[in-house]
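> call design_seq(struct)
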């Protein structure tokens, strides 16, 4: 379009899009409200009855057929509100004349009052429309209240009328004695705290009313919003009330009064005592059909049809039903552990339990009526203690033993296959073919289920099931469980070998590296465990060469004749490291990297594994392509940065557990990040039989060591120390841990310092205000920390962000700045001026963005790495080989898989909950290859939550030392008391 071709004096069409700015040209509008009366009906006349605005004289003569009508009005020449030439239709057709908002308001009012009219069309309506009972809506009242905000007055145009909108109206029912022992039922109305004669009140649908005066001039009208029940409307239309004759009083009080009391506010007068509410009865229909029983419930009231549970009705008494339901639930729970459900279907053993225990208990409850249909079978419960016999017999496969389990109860031998399937799916009880049934909650059966959950292939177990050689602890627990246990000799020999000296093998000929002594011992440890098909955790500190030790193992296994490939699963960012180090140290190995799913890359897992010595993939790819990886057979599985699979409830953890391999090794410098449960999760993958179940591990280790939970008959300190010693004994053969003290002579010194930064006065005032608010909220939630954990940690994170920079919480506080960034820039300037390079870590990428902006403003070059960085390798190599003196790194992106010895200064901008992760991040610079002293500065906002987090770090580090590094006993992790301490600043 050629805009230049438009004439200069062309009208500006776009201005029509805007409302007129000349208020003088707009005509103000008001809503006229008029009380009108239709003349009395005369059967001798056929013409329409006349409708007129009422006057005091008319109302004094009678108050029949009253209507409340509305219409738009305009200001007359003398200032009064008149009909003029304005109409409903005119408001719609000439919006510019009256203003956009008033026009829309009147159009919406018309739609509310006349909902059946075509949307946006007023037809020929130009006169009054009534707010009658058929059209008044609950939306009317909110709409009328908006009139004042829009400057639209509500007026009575008739000189003998006035109108007002009430703030509050209460409508109820009054029941009072009448003559001759009768009762009178009438409406009760209070408007703005003043009692109003119901004869002078009329309903507006079910959502409002209007009241009027009959004495005085003018007639005063009051309209008000009110929720009206059908009974109240009936009474308002019967001003004198309804008389209940004495012969019907008893029936009224028994049947009608309770229903009215639930629908409206009922008041009794004259000493009349209100009757009790209608009493509900729970009717249960129990139908037996074969091995199933169906239960349905309904609520019955005198004189009413039964109600289903999901039926909403004002005559129902929810509180009475709730009390009866509670009695039923209590009786049910006392009779059985069968889940409470009075509507539904119970099958097999659950049907037997319901019939034998629950049903008799329900039949004894008052106000519960049970109706039974069908043939009720004769069920019998076996109550004796299970007798368990376990045998382990050597097989032709040296890695497996046949496991035999025989269970009998009350002399009856229980079919093991169905029993194991019932235990596996979590059934509460089991039914035999002749109607006998027994509970699966007996401690020995529960224990049997826990042990079986620790073994692979539960759904394949039969009487000749197998147990793996690596499940040495599992067999010991079977021995503890069984009344009789017959172990195999070879089994004992294998377990005994774990306590002897670890003997490795010769270094592979294809190795192109000189192993340090601790690396050679690590290789020997891996080789010994691989030879005996026993997994474990290689928990060496970062920088000690875990990758090299594993590559040496793989090369050794290949030279020993192993044909199947090893599988390495690692974070995506670490995949190139495995390929590079394999090419450097074991160039003879065939390495295939799968960095994407088969659907994305087109590379099939089976094809990649064929002819490969080592297949390297990421945790994400394994999770997405689980079926393809599980289908193959691996010589061994290596989990690098194994803390990624520490949550046993995730799909990733289950995918790793399903991999088919002779042995699984976990590589991590932080086997215990947040608590002892991390250890159980890793050992459940690497040595599945070491700890039989998560529940037992929590009871035996987490409770006493972390939480200080000690049995009543035990002394706290000695008991916890014994548990800790037992835990160390159990994990010692399967966990190899060496710290950097082994190579201390090869590393330059590392100095760490906490620097406390004072907040500015305005920043301090804001922080203290938010702290008080969040403290009150959190302290009310932490007594139930498990349920409220997300809310609590959201508040803690808010305070951590506020400690860094107020604008991270609200951009309106950007002017307050950040004292921590001021301190960082000052120290970086000194470091850079002296020719040093620095790593800057933060858990919050938003704070790193603020730091980047400050560096830009100061003209300091930097590189940046976070989880969104697309070309991670290029960015890292760019810093290592470039001139930028500063590298901004987030925790998730830089906590592992990096060697950044080019930097010799490390700044930690915010303390992290996990001290092990923070230590790993710091040691990106302090590791083999570093030839300069490393200086670490933690910047802590003084007097804030950061100081408490730092103290919590130190306590968690002591827990790690006590279990993994043989430090002093430490018995607490993050609890509700910790959070209270964090907030008491």
């Amino acid at each position: 379009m050629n805009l230049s071709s438009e004439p200069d004096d062309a009208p500006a069409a776009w201005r029509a899009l805007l409302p007129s700015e000349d208020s003088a040209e707009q005509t103000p509008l008001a809503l006229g409200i008029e009380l009108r009366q239709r003349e009395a009906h005369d059967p001798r006349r056929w013409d329409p009855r006349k409708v007129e605005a009422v006057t005091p004289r008319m109302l004094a003569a009678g108050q029949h057929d009253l209507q409340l009508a509305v219409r738009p009005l305009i200001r007359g020449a003398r200032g009064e509100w008149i009909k003029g030439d304005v109409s409903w239709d005119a408001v719609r057709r000439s919006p510019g004349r009256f203003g956009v908002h008033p026009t829309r308001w009147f159009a919406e009012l018309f739609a509310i009052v006349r909902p059946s009219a075509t949307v946006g069309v007023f037809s020929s309506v130009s006169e009054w429309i009534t707010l009658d009972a058929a059209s008044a809506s609950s939306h009317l009242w909110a709409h009328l209240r908006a009139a004042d905000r829009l400057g639209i007055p509500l007026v009575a145009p008739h000189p003998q009328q006035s109108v007002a909108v009430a703030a509050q109206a209460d409508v109820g029912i009054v029941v009072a004695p009448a003559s001759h022992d009768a009762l009178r039922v009438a409406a009760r109305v209070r408007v703005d705290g003043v009692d109003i004669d119901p004869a002078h009140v009329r309903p507006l649908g079910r959502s409002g009313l209007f009241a009027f005066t009959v004495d005085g001039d003018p007639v005063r009208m009051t309209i008000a919003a009110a929720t009206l029940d059908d009974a109240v409307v009936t009474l308002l239309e019967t001003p004198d009330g309804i008389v209940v004759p004495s012969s019907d009083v008893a029936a009224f009080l028994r049947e009608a009064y309770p229903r009215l009391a639930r629908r409206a506010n009922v008041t009794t007068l004259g000493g009349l005592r209100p009757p009790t509410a209608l009493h509900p009865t729970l009717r249960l229909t129990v139908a037996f059909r074969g091995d199933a029983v169906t239960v349905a419930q309904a609520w019955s009231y005198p004189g009413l049809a039964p109600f289903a549970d999901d039926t909403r009705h004002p005559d129902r008494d929810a509180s009475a039903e709730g009390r009866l339901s509670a009695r039923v639930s209590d009786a049910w729970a006392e009779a059985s552990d069968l889940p409470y459900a009075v509507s539904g279907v119970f099958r097999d053993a659950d049907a037997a339990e319901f019939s034998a225990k629950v049903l008799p208990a329900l039949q004894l409850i008052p106000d519960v009526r049970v109706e039974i249909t069908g043939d009720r079978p004769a069920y019998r419960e076996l109550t004796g203690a299970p007798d368990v016999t376990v045998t382990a017999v050597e097989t032709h496969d040296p890695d497996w033993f046949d496991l035999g389990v025989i269970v009998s109860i009350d002399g009856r031998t229980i079919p093991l296959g169905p029993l194991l399937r019932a235990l596996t799916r979590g059934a509460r009880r089991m039914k035999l073919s002749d109607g006998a049934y027994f509970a699966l909650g007996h401690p020995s059966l529960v224990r049997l289920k826990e042990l079986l959950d620790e073994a692979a292939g539960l759904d394949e177990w039969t009487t000749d099931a197998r147990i793996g050689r690596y499940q040495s602890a599992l067999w010991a627990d079977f021995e503890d469980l069984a009344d009789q246990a017959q172990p195999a000799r070879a089994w004992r020999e294998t377990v005994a070998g774990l306590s002897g000296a670890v003997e490795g093998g010769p270094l592979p000929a294809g190795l192109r590296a000189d192993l340090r002594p601790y690396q050679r011992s690590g290789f020997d440890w891996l080789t010994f465990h691989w030879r005996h098909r026993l997994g474990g955790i290689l928990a060496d500190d970062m920088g000690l060469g875990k990758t090299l030790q594993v590559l040496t193992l793989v090369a050794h296994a290949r030279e020993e004749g192993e044909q199947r490939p090893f599988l390495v699963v690692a974070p995506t960012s670490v995949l190139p490291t495995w390929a590079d180090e394999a090419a450097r140290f074991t160039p003879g190995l065939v390495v295939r990297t799968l960095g994407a799913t088969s659907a994305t890359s087109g590379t099939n897992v089976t094809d990649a594994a064929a002819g490969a010595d080592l297949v390297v993939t990421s945790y994400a790819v394994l999770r997405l392509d689980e079926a393809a990886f599980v289908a193959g057979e691996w010589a061994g599985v290596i989990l690098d940065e194994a803390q990624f699979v520490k949550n046993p409830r995730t799909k990733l953890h289950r995918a790793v557990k399903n991999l088919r391999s002779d042995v699984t090794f976990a590589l991590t410098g932080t086997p215990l990040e947040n608590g002892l449960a991390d250890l159980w999760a890793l050992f459940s993958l690497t040595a599945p039989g070491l700890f039989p179940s998560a529940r037992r591990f929590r009871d035996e280790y987490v409770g006493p060591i972390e939480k200080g939970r000690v049995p009543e008959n035990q002394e706290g300190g000695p008991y916890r120390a014994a548990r800790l010693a037992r835990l160390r004994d159990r994990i010692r053969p399967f966990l190899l841990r060496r710290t950097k003290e082994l190579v201390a002579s090869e590393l330059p010194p590392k100095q760490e310092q906490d620097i406390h930064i004072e907040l500015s006065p305005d920043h301090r005032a804001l922080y203290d205000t938010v702290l008080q608010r969040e403290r009150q909220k959190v302290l009310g939630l932490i007594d139930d920390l498990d349920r409220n954990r997300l809310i609590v940690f959201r508040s803690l994170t808010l305070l951590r962000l506020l400690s860094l920079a107020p604008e991270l919480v609200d951009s309106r506080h950007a002017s307050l700045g950040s004292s921590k960034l001021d301190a960082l820039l000052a120290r970086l300037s000194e470091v850079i001026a002296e020719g040093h390079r620095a790593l800057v870590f933060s858990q919050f990428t938003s704070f790193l963005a603020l730091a980047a902006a400050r560096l830009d403003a100061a003209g300091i070059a930097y590189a940046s790495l976070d989880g969104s960085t697309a070309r991670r390798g290029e960015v890292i190599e760019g810093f290592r080989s470039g001139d930028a003196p500063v590298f901004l790194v987030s925790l998730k992106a830089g906590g592992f898989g990096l060697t950044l010895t080019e930097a010799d200064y490390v700044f930690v901008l915010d303390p992290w909950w996990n001290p092990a992760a923070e230590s790993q991040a710091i040691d990106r610079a302090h590791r083999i290859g570093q030839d300069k002293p490393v200086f670490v500065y933690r910047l802590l906002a003084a007097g804030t939550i950061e100081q408490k987090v730092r103290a919590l770090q130190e306590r968690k580090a002591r827990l790690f030392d006590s279990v993994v590094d043989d430090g002093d006993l430490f018995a607490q992790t993050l609890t509700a008391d910790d959070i209270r301490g964090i907030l008491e600043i």
